[in-house]
Target: BCL-2-associated athanogene 1
Amino acid sequence: MMRMKTRTTGSPPVNGNSAGGRSGGGEGEWELTPGGMLVQKRTDSDQNRATPPTIRVRVKYGSIYHEVNISSQASFGELKKMLSGPTGLHHQDQKLLFKDKERDSKVFLDVAGVKDRSKIVLVEDPISQEKRYLEMRKNAKMEKASKSISEISLEVDRLAGQVSALESVISKGGKVAEKNVLNLIELLMNQLIKLDGIIADGDAQLQRKIQVKRVQKYVETLDMLKIKNSMPTSNGNEIPPQPSPNQQMYSNGQISSPNQQQQARHSLGHLPIRTEPKAHLPSRHSTSRRSCDHHAMGDV
Model:
């Protein structure tokens, strides 16, 4: 039986104490290879001491051989990524067989026994391909749902500004056309229908719920504004009576209540009576003078 050579300063595990891959009292670390061999665990210092050699492996895919130059300490996963270009297969859809055994992507080539000019068989993994295809479709749907929710959110923001404008007018006692309120409610309901048609999971589903609550809140606000806008009251108080034409005539814009009108009538009773001036009558002196002039003309 050949004795395995090591370069460690520590001793190999004794009495089966291989837990954690450490030796009983030495400094070296040991690891168990997939083939059941006990080898020294690699460290960064060991990798820096010597550059790992580059090997050429022959990979068969169908009836075609591909030769790949790769580091001897690379993993099978790295080899799959290098084969994606020449084979056209995604690295997640590949299955590598070495010595009629499938190798995991995390296993190193040299640990598995791959050497220069070793032969590896590449086959397509239909199960992995189906999983990746389903994952891609799921991600595409999630991306589409997130985009749709984002567009709806922007539209709801725009409609929210109109809701605030109507609320500001009606809350101050003003009136708006009922058609404007109804149209705004209809636009918000259309956004709610769009949200109901979106199927989302995870974060997109949470965003969808947030937008649904926003739209429902604005619709409820508009319903309350519609009722308030249709009421014949202003700010919850009765509408003050409009002054009659007589009140306006007496007040000249100043008397606006019946008490003030009554006071105005009393004040009118104490005012001096204004009479029209009589026509000016000729005085007696002027009449006699005119008759004298007439007799004088007759004597001539």
User: Anything to note?
Assistant: Strands lie at 30-32, 38-40, 54-61, 64-71, 94-97, 119-124. The first strand starts at residue 30 and ends at 32. The mean pLDDT is 75. The chain has nine helices and six strands.
